[in-house]
Amino acid sequence: MTRLKTRELHAPIATTARECAPRRRAVRPSLRGALAAALAVALAPALAHGTEWRVGVELPLTGALAQAGTEMYRGIQVAADIYNRRHPQDKITLVAIDDESNPAKAVAAVEQLASQHVVAIAGAANSNCAGPASEAASKAGLVYVTSGGTSDDMVTRGLKNFFRVSNTPGYTSGMVGLFDSLGVKSVAIVYSTKDATSDLARQLDTALKAKGVKTMLHAYDPSISDFKPLINKVKLQDKPDAMAMLGYENDYVGILRAARVLKPDLKAIAAPWAFASPKMAQSFPDLVPNVYGATVLSSPADYRSADQRDFSDAYQRLFKTTSNYQSQTSFVYAQLLFDAIAKAQKAGTLDKGGLADTLRATQRDDTFLGKVSFDARGDNTNYVAHMGQFSRDGKLALVWPANYATAKPVYPGVPW
Amino acid sequence: MADLLLQSLYSGVLVGGAYALVALGLALVFGSMRIINLAHGELVLLAAYIAYTFETKLGLNPVFAIPVAIPVVCAAAAAAWYLVSRIKRDRELNSLILTYGIGIVLTNGVLLGWGADVRSTGNAWLQDSVMLGNLLSMRSEVLSFGISVALMLALWWWLSRSWYGRAVRAISSNRDAARLMGIDPRKTELISFVVAGLLASCAGVSIYASSAIQPSIGEALTVKAFIITVLAGVGSIPGVLAGALLLGIAEALTVTLASSALQELAGMLLFLLVLYVLPNGLFGVAKRRG
Predict the structure, then answer these.
(1) Which stretches does DSSP call E strand in B144-250?
(2) Is the domain of A315 the same as that of A358?
(3) pLDDT tops 90 at residue A259
(4) N or C: which end of chain B has fewer CB within 10 A?
(5) What is the CATH number of the domain that holds A284?
(6) Half-sphere exposure of residue A29, counting CA atoms within 13 Å on the CB side?
């Protein structure tokens, strides 16, 4: 069994017990007083120091979702960095454990974090891991915050400690809004059989049908690598205006590669998460042009607040590269979590399970995701995905909703 | 419907060729040493990442990375053999555990060295579509199929005509008798592993050229290769191609006629069905009793 890997950003101060050897001579009173004064001076900063809160992070740093997990972790690290600089009296220490994109290991990670007395857990890149992990957190009485548990059943379990900033209805609204604005009449929905993607496919199907759009659904096993037979069905049988591909990075590459070979007569291709990132454009410049994906900001980014610019500067300083929507999203919930921890501590309720209530009472309007607040189920019902479209030079423009748009969509438009 | 089926069959044949290329090395080691090298998929993965590095650093067609990948992957295969050769007892079981561990080390080594991002070739020539009548495929897939068939023929020739190839077959047939005939089992097994490494190098470069790679795919490649090896029948190289083609076509037809969600299930059902009807695999030979 693979040993869980733990990382601490700031190691705790270790103390050892030591037996004093018997003194040969008594210390003179004058020297005793001087020693006491020196000790008091040395200890003063420590005594004046505020609280240190250990926050657990359970994310896939290896495995199939390692790219998403690593990026999300960076967003949380930036949030901790900014918080610690703004509040020098307090300190957020992150304790990260790799869940290896594996639900069983996600549970084990949460249990290990709970045994290390963290005050809350930020975690999971997908619903398959977020589900069992958040249940383990609930049993341990810990708040669990995520941007990865988007499927609907995450908030119907009755867990009081579960919070999420993004959700499937938000992604559905984004994609439906985009297709509606483009005037698309038929959509082939190609989706992975994982929890979140299946959930999104069902909701997207229902929402599009309600708008009079014809839909055709094609489920695929997450392990498949050759999408040509499936895309050929879309090309020869479905003949839709647009294709919605619901999956993860490796799926998008396979689907777009197959589409590039078979060249179905499509006018638009859209994906929800894990597509619209600078890294995708850099790695696959031939596959992304004119494809739509959910994003937070355009790229290059147009930061709209001091907080967002602080995030960008800190990210660049820590990681020497540009961020994407995954780190921007995790930054949002990490920021909210740290502020809630501080508030609960000040109110004296942190140790009495008051963090969940404090977080539920939180509301902020100026985040990367716009307004964020949590309902009784821990869901951010304000969430609506913004949709971006890549241009041929790899830039990402926000094209929907109109009040956030930085460019008009290119329609019809496909990579080939 | 006819167009759909023909394209599906064509895609299935090409995918089967790619599967055969991955399975060849595992089949060789399994056939000669009765050892299932669970790190074989990771050796393929290592070659794929070498091809990625070759392309991104030098800007050259990744197919030219094969001569670079071969020594590295063969060295890794030789290291794996050395560790396996240290096992004195319960070789079949302990080698499974050991090679699984080697696979984990290799996967995490790849992750540390190259990161978790999905990678694929940016070479336009390889990604261009090729038409065979009305049938479409990527150029890299056709190339991969050709390499697969060529390597299979080369391996068949080596096993049947070369001294070391016949030594490998002798060792797999009767290790003690082969030793008595002057064949060094350790040296022959090392050669098996190194040749498997060579085959894994070609497979890895081929996979990088035609699809996306990431550190987690090694395990899936090993499982696929193992299924094909067993389907083929122990020690049968032509069986590997037949088994791989059968698997590729079954998967493609399942996607076309039923659902992509059932693709893996179809492969497993085929595996069970063949073993039920032909317990020694498609080309395997039943052992005599007594």
Answers:
(1) none
(2) yes
(3) yes
(4) C
(5) 3.40.50.2300
(6) 0
Q: Where are the beta strands (DSSP E) in chain B?
A: 129-132, 135-138
Same domain, A162 and A66: yes
Q: Within an 8 Å CB–CB cutoff, is residue A285 touching chain B?
A: yes
In terms of residue numbers, what domain contains B163?
Answer: 2-116+133-277
What does the DSSP 8-state code read for residue A350? G
Residue A242: its H or E element: strand A242-246
A171 close to A272: Cβ distance less than 8 angstroms:
yes
Cβ-count burial of B12 within 10 angstroms (0-12 exposed, 13-18 middle, 19+ buried)?
buried
Lookup: tokens for A120: 């809350």
State the Cα–Cα distance between residues B13 and B248, nearest whole angstrom.
6
Task: Nearest chain A residue to B7 by CA: give it.
Answer: A229
SS3 call for A362: coil
Q: ω into residue A300 within 30 of 0, thus cis? A: yes
Check CB contact of A237 with chain B, cutoff 8 Å: yes
Q: Say which CATH number the domain at B173 has.
A: 1.10.3470
Count how many pairs of residues, chain A against chain B, have C-beta atoms within 8 Å: 125
> Would you state the pLDDT for residue A34?
60
Per the rule left: phi > 0, alpha: psi between -120 and 50, beta: everything else, B59 is: left
Partner residue opposite A253 with nearest CB, options B11, B118, B216: B118
Q: Which residues, at least 6 apart from A300, have a Cβ–Cβ distance to it below 8 Å?
A: A395
Whole-structure pTM value: 0.80
Interchain proximity A62–B117, CB inside 8 Å:
no
Q: Which residues of A touch B114 (CB under 8 A)?
A: none
CB A350 within 8 Å of CB A341: yes
Q: DSSP H helical segments within A263-360, as ranges?
A: 278-283, 306-319, 325-347, 355-360
Q: Which residues of B touch A237 (CB under 8 A)?
A: 4
The answer on A173 and A149 residing in a single domain is: no
Which distant-in-sequence residues (6+ apart) come within 8 Å of B159 by Cβ? B165, B166, B168, B169, B237
Instruction: With respect to residue B86, please indicate whether it lies within any of the assigned structural domains.
Output: yes
Enter the tokens of residue A264. 């179905």
Stretch 96-125 of chain A: residues touching chain B, C-beta under 8 Å: 101
Tens of pLDDT, residue by residue over B87-145, are 988 888 899 999 999 999 999 999 889 987 788 888 888 988 898 888 999 999 999 99
> Considering CB atoms only, which of A233, A254, A286 is closest to B4?
A233
SS (H, E, C) A130-169: HHHHHHHHHHCCCEEEECCCCCHHHHCCCCCCEEECCCHH
Question: To 5 degrees, how large is the angle CA B134–CA B135–CA B140?
Answer: 140
